[in-house]
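Title: Prediction job returns without error message
Component: structure pipeline
Severity: low
Priority: P3
Assignee: unassigned

Description:
Job completed but the reporter wants confirmation the result is attached to the right record. Sequence as submitted:
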Amino acid sequence: MFRAVGAGVVVLALALSGCSSGSADAFGASKACPLLAQLARTGQTVAGADVSDPAAFDRTIRDATTEYVRTARKLRDAVPERLRADVERMIAAVERHRFADGNAARARIDAYARAACKANGSA
């Protein structure tokens, strides 16, 4: 049971964290970049969740999921049109707690983030 929960935390943290190569202040000019950084910070809260306390862990997952979806909805309007369906798939997956699917939906979004959100002048 503990291994299953631990594996779930790893998948969830990966799905919620996205790609972040620096602080939010270091991101590029795209209005999507600060939102992508916020998604990464939200995922990092899950990575630090205490799985030994089920109630606290459930609260962390619930709160992180709510915050992630709220931020992702803003992201949907900030990314280029060609990525909006990917953001929709990511939101739908995370809302259903299908975090591996959410992570898969991020592939093109993460590629966009690497290209558009440069930290300290580097990709």
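Comment from assignee: result matches the submitted record. The chain has one domain: 2-116.
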